Amino acid sequence: MSWLADTRESYDTVADSYADVVREALAEEPYLRAILALFADLVRAGGGGPVADVGCGPGHVTAHLQQLGVDAFGIDLSPGMIDVARRDHPGLQFRVGSMTELDLADGSAAGLLAFWSLIHVPDDEVPVVFGQFHRVLRPSAPLLLGFHAGDGSRLKTEGYGGHPMRVHVHRRSPGRVADWLRGAGFTVEAEVLLDLDRSVPGAALFARRA
Hints:
- The protein is α/β, with parallel strands linked by helices and 210 residues long.
- It is globular, with a radius of gyration of 16 Å.
- The strands form two sheets. A seven-stranded mixed sheet has the order 3-2-1-4-5-9-8, sandwiched between helices. A two-stranded antiparallel sheet has the order 6-7.
- It is built from six helices and nine strands.
- The chain starts with a helix and ends with a strand.
């Protein structure tokens, strides 16, 4: 699929610059930290176990979850991003993989996080991705999604550090994402809206494999 190849190549190109941008980003985002802390609580309440950070990028969120006591590992489409994640967080596990075809056993994950990693997935592929999430999660395991809220898409041709990119960035309403989740067999439990006065607000959805 061309969008996968474009996404992989784009993030290979910007991997080092992107890591520099986001390395300390969570320190300035109290609401995101609170969302991640709640997710960690839900994983522990379910008995704990391995948690997949899908679309982990340079691994900063994976590392934060580990600091919260979660047995997190990272998966990303971009080998360049995985190289950076392994370099910056040598004690953690990272692997190259696609959210459209996760190389994880059925029911093996105690939780799954996709934090702003769905934004390049085309609409017709989102149900495929959510089907993969449902397959690899244990029954009743929590899922946390973070994404750009709104409507419409744009082609991003330049990114972090001024490097060339070619990815479509999709904004979606929480209601639309929630409907996709229900169609994939999830129960949607909570919705959080973020940065409402910024040009690109965010949203987070907590769901659970039914």
